[in-house]
Structures are given as structure tokens and as C-alpha cells.
Amino acid sequence: MTVRIMSMTDAEHHAGLGTLHAERGNLPLDRVDVRVDITGLTSQVELTQDFVNVFDVPLEATYVFPLPDRAAVTRMRMSVDGRVVEAKLLEREAARRDYDDTIASDRRAAIVEEERPDVFTMRVGNILPAERVSVALTLVNPLAYADGEATFRFPLLVAPRYIPGAAMADGPVGDGYADDADVVPDASRITPPVLLPGFPYPVLPAINVGIDPAGFTLSEVRSSLPAVSTDDGRIKVQPGERANKDFVLRLRYGAEDLTDSLVLVPDADGDEGTYQLTVLPPASVAPPRPRDVVLLLDRSRSMAGWKIVGARRVSARIVDTLSTGDRFAVLTFGDRIECPAGLPDGLVEASDRHRYRAIEHLARVDACGDTELLAPLRQALALLRGPQGRDAVLVLVTDGQVGNEDQLLRELSDELQHVRVYTVGLDQAVNAGFLDRLAKVGGGHCELVESEDRLDEAMHAMRRRIGAPLAHSLALHADGLNTIAATTSPVRLPDLLPGVPLVVTGRYRGSASGTLTLRGTTVEGGDWSAMVTGQRREAPAVTAEWARAQLRDLEDRYVAAAGGLREDLEQQIVDTSLRFNVLCRFTGYVAHDSQVTRVVAEGKCNTA
């Protein structure tokens, strides 16, 4: 198979991967190796990170790093001095105690914890002088698919995030540059230094990708980083490319390759299994119906450069596509909210005059101020509390670089159930985890744009998707398949959008046979349905992907819950994580070496 690899251009050449922090100084990563194996619409990633103690005493190091927000971390290994130690997954506090006890006994240990869906912390202790320690993680990650194109995205940078709220009086819980705040109590754990003090260049990643189309017709591969094909048919990012943005690989598959499917994967033990239903709607748009559309454009200082230019273009195109039967409002925000001059307050008819005024306002928008996102989201949702019979649509154009994701979902989750939310993320290191969560809670879609070159195709896709859905009010019905209650993910089935596959996963008990039928209502009020017969498969990746999706749904419910329900949800999250061996915010992978290290004075190790 010969496929041309096309480069997607970029603009920024600053920033780095993160830092290893220690009391004696910063320890730059010596090596980051990302080995990716893509099979159809699923990928398995082996991420190996090496670092070396360049000082003359043992150290403990802390490292904050990004991972794909939808990836399931299913394994961790630590290699040191020729030995490989397999990590175990424990409840988070138990993992920390295990790690601390191991460090206190003068043995090497490593722990990995999740801070956000796409931000993780690693600590490695008792690293001897001149010693190399390697920590490897295994990830299972689904590829996003729409309009015949599959996208693999791997973040290489924890971008700076705006931290709102009042600083807390207590000491920081992490080593980041931001103070912990009342609405972001772990701010210091998600804000690592971007450039390494004392080191002129960030780490250079080694990225190697193998692609098995698995029956799909692969016609084109596009890479956000310059890459070449190797003799063994793999794709290798060219040496010297700095880790200052997401690595994005787009695969063009045949338009007719993906069909409706129901995969049934029995567990290795017991009488349960996982199902994965995929329904592919046509790319054609549905007949229009009246909409109320509120467009939010982030004009904060983090949007400076090509991002604000792209945001203006995307926003103007959305306004220009509105019809006379629609009503709309445009809100631009940083640390204050502004509306187009000359337009009445609230929703206005999408007349030529009103749309022209809005586009005039958008053309003058420049980047300034902090990213205060809660107030504009509240105002937008208030505007959409309108009469029944009109689609309520919220479009957010932003880079998503905020640290108060949990606060936003906690305070807005109820209102988000009554609108359809579309997020457009513009950045070379976008906060994909938050924007995808927001879109899923709002039953919509997240579109990520990593460069100006992708704006046109993204705008074309958004134009079709913010129109009337092909079907709404979807519900799942089983026949012959004993599905298990409260395991379906996503919890809120989104509307059926043109060209965007709807993937629903869950658990079943008993025989791996039967059918699932997805039923909904068309724009005209008619019935719509798709029935798919199950096919038994041996595909453990499907179970890992379901577990990760289920954990994210439970975590979003946990954020919005209170009292006893919150405690019950936390226990469900821990139980699911441990049963299926997938890392989450309440568990941690910990590995400890059996060999005692050589120590310094009084038998103690210097710690970060």
C-alpha cells in the first residue's frame, strides 16, 4: 500500500512539552517516544518517557503531561537499571500511600494520576545520580470520524490555562506556576512551566505510526508535522520537530466503507460483555426549520494571532448562513461581554441588515482580556429559554484554555440539557477534553481546527451541522440482547447530524446475539429508525473504550451532583476504573522497585 503523506502547515514555534520539577532544578525529558498502531477507527499507543538525574544526589521528580482526552490508559510499566516493573491500578489515596511508603523505604517508585481528561501527573522517586528511568503507558484511543475522514490527535503540550477565582490561602497542591483558587483548587497541578528554565529547547519527540486500514480504502494521509514513510511502511515524524503543538493525523477513507454495525464483545470471564453500536447517517442535510442561535466568540488574550483571525472568519460564516426564519445573537467576550452596536438586546431576526451589523462587529474584534467563560455561557443559555418548536443552538468559538472546567459543567449542566451545543476549538494545542465534554453534555458536536489551512473545510462542516438534525429525540431499543441498565454511553444521545456517525456503547448480560434499534423523530415530525443485528467479535479495545466513555459520563454527573449522590457516584467511578483497569480521576497507577537504592546522608533521598 502506497499512500501520499501531506503536510498541514502551522504558524507557532514556541512553547514546550512540560517539565520535570525537582528541588535541585528542572530535569528536561531526555526522550519521548510515541508509537502508534492504528487499526481502522481504533488506535493503540505506547508512550515511553525517559529522563535522567543530572545531579549528584538522588531525587524525586514531578512531571505534568498531556494525553488524548478520549484515550483509556490501560497499563503502566517502569524500567530502571535493566528491570521492568509492572504497575498496579489502585484507588488514588491508596496508590499515593503505596508510593510514599516505597519512597520511604529507599526504593524507586512511580505513580501516574489523572488531573483532567487530557492532563496527567507523574511522580518518580529515588532516582540515583546519572540514572535513567523510563515509564511506559499503554493507551487505547478511538479515532474521531466524520465525512469519510478519521482523525488521530495526540497532544504534545499542556498549554497555559486561565485560572479564574480568588487565590487560596493554603499552600499549593502542585508545582505549577498558577495559584490554587476557590473555583480551581488544583490549579497548581495543571499549569506546568511551558519552557524549561535554563534549557533553550523543549524535548524532541520521536513519533512512529503504523496504519492498518482494516478493510477501509485509505486514499490519503495528512500530518500536522512533517513526516516521511519508512521502509517498513510506517510513518515517522521527521527528527528535529519540536513538541509545541498537537500531532494530528488525518486519514481519508472511502465514503462507502463505514456502514451501520453492532459489535458484541464478550468478557473473558463471566456472562457479561460490551456492545458498540455505530449508525452512519447520510451526508445530506435535513429540511430547514426555525432556529434560535447564540454565537459566543472568545476574544481573550489567549486567542491572539491566527486564532482570533480564524475565529472571526468562522463566526462571520455562521452568521452569514442564517436564514430569515432564524433568530440570533452574537456575544464576544474576554473579561467582559460585548454585543454588536445597533442591534436590539436579545435575539433578533436574521434579516440582511441584522446579519450585516453582526458581521461588522465581528470584523473589529481583537484579542484582549482574560477568559471569563461562565458569565457569557449563562447569558447565552438565558437567551435560548424561548418558545417550543424552535431549535435552540449555542455555538462556542474558543481555544478552551481555562482551568475551571468542573465549575462550568457543575453550574450549567441542567440548562445545557435543553439546547444543542457546538464547540469550535481553534488552537495548535487546544483544550479538547473540555470542549468535547461541553458538546457532549449539550448533545452536539465538537470541531477542532489546528491551523488556518483547515478553516475552510471546518466551516463547511459546521454549516451543515448547525442546521436541522436528520433525527432528534433518539432512544435505544433492544430485541434479544439483554442490555444492562445505566451503562449506556453517552447518557444523552445526541441528535443525528449529517455525516457524523453516532456511536453508542454499553454493557449486556447473557448471549452475544440480538438487535438494537435506534428510533427518533425527523424534522417533519415523522418516525425514523435504524435496526442493526449484532455480530460477535473478539475486540478488547471496544471494552476499554466503553469503560473510558462510561467513566467520563459518571465524572460529569459527579461534578454536577451533591451530598450522598456525589459519594455514590465516586464509588461507581472507582469500581468501574478498577474492574476494567482504566485510569480515572479517583485512581492511580503505581509501580515500585524491589531493589533498595544507594542513599546519601542519613539514608534519605532529596525530594521535590
> What name does the CATH topology of the domain at 19-252 and 585-595 carry?
Immunoglobulin-like
Continuous helix count: 9
Give the CATH H-level superfamily of the domain at 19-252 and 585-595.
tricorn interacting facor f3 domain
Percent strand equals 35-45%
- Counting DSSP E segments of at least 2 residues, the number of strands comes to 33
Helix content: 10-25%
Identify low-pLDDT runs. 1-19, 196-200, 599-608
Write a compact overview of the structure shown:
Among the domains are: about 20-250 and about 585-595, tricorn interacting facor f3 domain (Immunoglobulin-like, Sandwich), CATH 2.60.40.1730; about 290-460, Rossmann fold.
Notable traits:
608 residues; eight-stranded mixed beta sheet; Immunoglobulin-like; 36% strand; 33 strands; disordered C terminus; 9 helices; Rossmann fold; 20% helix; alpha+beta
SSE arrangement:
Blueprint: E1 5-7, E2 20-22, E3 25-27, E4 29-39, E5 42-52, E6 59-66, E7 72-80, E8 83-86, E9 88-91, H1 92-104, E10 107-116, E11 119-127, E12 132-142, E13 144-146, E14 149-154, E15 205-212, E16 218-223, E17 227-229, E18 235-237, E19 247-253, E20 261-266, E21 272-279, E22 291-298, H2 306-320, E23 327-333, E24 337-338, E25 348-349, H3 352-363, H4 374-383, E26 391-398, H5 405-416, E27 420-426, H6 432-441, E28 445-449, H7 455-465, E29 472-479, E30 502-509, E31 515-521, E32 527-536, H8 540-560, H9 563-580, E33 587-596
Helix pairs in contact: 2-3, 2-7, 4-5, 5-8, 8-9
Describe it for me?
It is a single chain. This protein has nine helices and 33 strands. Helix 2 (306-320) packs parallel to helix 7 and helix 8 runs antiparallel to helix 9 (563-580). It starts with a strand and ends in a 12-residue tail after the last strand. With 608 residues, the chain is of the alpha+beta class. Strand 13 (144-146) and strand 14 (149-154) form a beta hairpin. Among the domains are: 19-252 and 585-595, tricorn interacting facor f3 domain (Immunoglobulin-like); 291-458, 3-Layer(aba) Sandwich (Rossmann fold).
